[in-house]
Structure formats: structure tokens, C-alpha cells
What we know:
Elements: E1 3-8, H1 13-23, E2 31-37, E3 42-48, H2 51-61, E4 68-74, E5 89-90, E6 96-104, H3 107-116, H4 126-141, H5 145-153, E7 158-166, E8 172-178, E9 183-186, E10 191-194, E11 206-209, E12 214-219, E13 225-228, E14 234-235, E15 239-241, H6 257-263, H7 265-273, E16 277-278, E17 283-284, H8 287-290, H9 293-297, E18 301-306, H10 308-325, E19 329-333, H11 334-337, E20 348-354, H12 360-371, E21 375-380, H13 386-390, E22 393-396, H14 409-429, H15 434-455, H16 458-468, E23 473-478, H17 483-497, E24 500-505, E25 522-527, H18 533-544, E26 549-555, H19 560-564, E27 567-571, H20 580-597
Amino acid sequence: MCGIVGYIGHREAYPIIMKGLKRLEYRGYDSAGIALFDGNDIKLSKTKGKVSDLESRVSQEITTEGSLGIGHTRWATHGVPNDINSHPHYSNSGNLVIIHNGIIENYESLRTELTKRGYSFTSDTDTEVLVNLIEDVKKNEDTKLGKAVQIALNQVVGAYAIAVFDKTKPNEIVVARLGSPLAIGIGDDEFFVASDASPFIEYTKNAIYLEDEQMAIIRRGKDVKIRKIKSDTLVDPYVQELQINLEQIEKGGYDHFMLKEIYEQPSAIKDTYRGRLRVKSGIIKMAGIDDNLDKFLKANRIIVVACGTSWHAGLVSEYIFEDLARIPVEVEYASEFRYRNPVINKGDVVIAISQSGETADTLAAIKLAKSRGAFVFGVCNVVGSSIARETDAGAYTHAGPEIGVASTKAFTTQITVLTLIALKLAKEKGTITQSAYQSHLEELSLIPEKVETALKSDAHVQMISDIYKDARNFLYLGRGYNFPVALEGALKLKEISYIHAEGYPAAEMKHGPIALIDENMPIVVIATRKGHYDKVVSNIEEIKSRSGKIIGIVTEGDVSVKKLADHVIEVPETLESLTPLLTTIPLQLLSYHIAVMLDKNVDQPRNLAKSVTVE
């Protein structure tokens, strides 16, 4: 939620910050703002709307000189999206200016106390409270900005990533984090600050990722000083080399990031199993599993915690782990997990799944599981992310940056990693025959090629999308391994087209949803030949008898469903456990094309942000 960018160095800050905000706009896009120091004063401009609206506002309101500045693109938490609530925010004196990602939970009590001390507030935000709290501490303690930030944050309850500077001491930016990500780019006598590394990858490959409850003082011509907020102890900075490049975060000729990322799935899946899947030798090599094999083999059960699309990938993994490795699995919404006092034992393995590695609810679930003695294994995409650091071990998906808010390649690469783990454990436990094991390895190695084939249905899916783009409700049905795919297909349509859609196990249709079916209801049915095919065909017969419009996702060469469905979209044949990697492709394309035809903002759907770093 929210994207923050900062710069201090020898270049003009404005173009760096503005470009960075555009790259972070997937994190929030209901308002944006920028503050620059020109050597004499702070020049601030902010507005409701997108970064492009901010560019127009800046050109009318302020000059853009200055080599120090901060910028913000917002996903609203406290206060409606408007010009006043947009960041950055000034302190009452006008000396301090701040940007903030997160939520200050005790801001009301802090605001009340500050009001008694004579402070006034123009916005409804918790952020304006924080900057004035910092100013109050700085004034009363007669201390420098860094110390004032530290003292103030020890009075704060909540989550934050902040960047703040003082116009009376314009040679430093103070940053801090708790629960929300923050990266510091280290250049040649210049420094960059951002929610992730994408705003500064063309300027430097070196970055420091702040840990929770750490702050940093960034000064011109000096080394970055990192301290623990609570204990005030210095921390040796760990400088990482960035693994992404500029090309990965550009659209590359596609109209939208989402479409680009759909088409990147063959290479993303291959990158995910590259070096891990060795078909000829019959080996799966994963350091995070190899080093902790006993914990998995002796596990009483596996608990999967995740949110959104990652939760759907977790549901697929439940089928895979139980079917192949015969390990009991429970799949939990991370957002509910810690609030229901879950039973967690030392023999449990918790798998936490997150594309960004920064999902607040999943991080909280990890901390709870670790406190109860469980072994926690992370599956995420972003190297150096909070989940990668908080878990006991893990595996990266290597999907590359995913900019579109609606996850696509995250889903298929997460399933790929989870499948590799399940197959490895099944082999070690002896719950799969050698021939079946080898068959799975060979088929998994062919999935990228088969996804390429599935993508060739794009024009056909576009035609179907045009027919049903004006429908107001959709049903998605699947059985077995493809029930979670039905949920994921419905979620994609809801996220980017704002059409109401629900996913169900196909057999559950008779227990309620069948009442909705009429000639105006499109029903997407996943009916591959592998797994409960005859049962699904019977469900299609029931839909047909009630005049529902059937869009069938079928295996190449299907005959039975073709006779019944209004439209069919074919995918290549594969093993049942691997079908989700193929059947999800046409559902992604369907949601994409419908949203484009409805003139929706595909990459930045309303009310959503890519990385949910607050509760």
C-alpha cells in the first residue's frame, strides 16, 4: 500500500522521483504528491488522482529545482482520497515534511494530545499527526531530526515506512520502517529511497533493505547510519546486489503489464524450475527443502497461510501434497489465522505464500507460527523481502517483477514451486512410484511449452469476451485440482472488470448457485479430461437444461463438452495435478479482454493495491 520515493545527491531530484512514482503506482494510485528543496525552501505539490495528474499540477504550481526531494503515491487508509489528504505532509512550523506508507493505529490519542499542546491539523490523516509528533519531540527534547524520529516512533503503535526531512538541515533524509518495506539505493555520492528497488535500478545495483524496527540517517557525502529504533544500537548495513533490471519493469510493447505478465508465464515457470528440476537424473534440488528435509518428512501436517491469489495457489497445493506426498494440509487465510487462536504444534510446518513477500497479514501469521514453535517455510517472489527474512527457510519463485495488480505469473510460479516440493517429499516418503514420479518430472518440464500453446487461444478468448462483456454475473465451476482455479478465475474477473463472479466446486452448484442460472448467466466450467470428467459433464447437462450459457475449458480434442457448451477453449493435455497451470491461462485472458472492452484500468483497478502492507 502506497509507494514512497526519495532522493538526495548531485542530480536534479524531480525527474528521478517522478519516474519512481510512476513505477510504484501499482502500490496505490488514488492521489500523489512531491516535495522538493530548492536550496531555500520546500516546494510542495500534491493532488487527488494519478501520477500523471500530479505532473500536470506540478507544471502549474511549483518550480522543480533541487537535489533533495520525496514523493508519494497513495492508497488511502485514513482520510478520503483528496488533495488535502494526499502526501507529503508538513509539520505546523513548515520545517518538516514527511511521506508515509502504513497505519498509525493510535493516531487519534496522539492527535488529541498534540491538539492540547497547540497543534492544528488540516487533513484527516494519521501521517500529519506523525510529522507533528516528530516536530514536538524535536522541539521539546532540543534534539536532531534523527533522534526526534526515533523517540516519536517509540510512541507509535502501528505500521510504517517513512521518509522525512527538515528544511533547516537540508543535507539529510531520515527513514524508518516497521511492517512496510523500505529500500535504500546506494549510488556514487547519492542515495535513493523507495518502497522497492524499481525506482532506482538504472542508477545503482546496490541496495540496503531496512529490517523491521530499523531507521537510517542518510546524509550527503556520508555513509548511511542504521540504528534499531527501540534500543538505539548501531547496525552494520548489509548491501545487496539487485537482481532485477530495467527491461523487466517496462511494458515491452504490450498494452498493459497484465498482458505482458500473462505472456511471460512460459519463461517464468521455466525460470522457477531451472536448476531445481533435473529430469534425466530424476532429481529435484531445492536447498531450502534439502537442508530441512526431516522437518517436512516428520511433519504432523502442513499449514498453508496466504491471501488472495496466493491463497488459491495454496489450495492447489493442498491437493498436491495430500495426493502425492500423503501429508495432511490445512489452508488458512492469513488475515484470519492469528485472530482465531489456531492450534499450532512444534511438529507442524507452516508454508507462507506471498508474491511481494511483504503482505502484512501473512507476516503476522508467520510471527505467530514461529512463536508457537512451528517450522516456517516461505514461498515468495521478491529477493530480500520481509517474508524471505522472517521465515526459517524458503524458495523464491523467480517470476520476475509483477507490476499488474491482478496476479497472473505469481499464481503459476507459486504452483510450480509447491509442486516441486510435493514431488520431492513424495519421492523421499515413498508415496509415489518411480514411474509416476518420473512422469511428473517430464510433464512439468513440458509445461512452459504447453502454456505457450494455451496462449494461442488468445484471439478466440477475445471473441468470447466480446459476447459476454456486458454480463453482470459469472459463475466459475471446477472440481478437484481445478476448483481453486475456478476461484482464481472468478477473482481475476472481479478485480479488473468489476463484474460480480463466484467460483464453486461444480458439485456444489446444486446446493444453491443453480438458482441463479438462466439464459443471461455465463458459466465458465473447467472440464479437462483428467479428473472427474464424467461428473463435470453431468453438471454441464444440468446447466444446459436451465438455459445457462456455458464456456467450457477443455482438453484438446474434447468431444462431449463441445456438444453441450456454447463455447469451448482448449488447453493441451497433461497430468491431472498439473492442469491448473494450463486451465488458468484462458481465464486470465478472459478477464483481461473483458476489462479492456469495458475500458477499465487493467493494471490499476479501483480500490486495489499490489502489495497489501497494512491490515
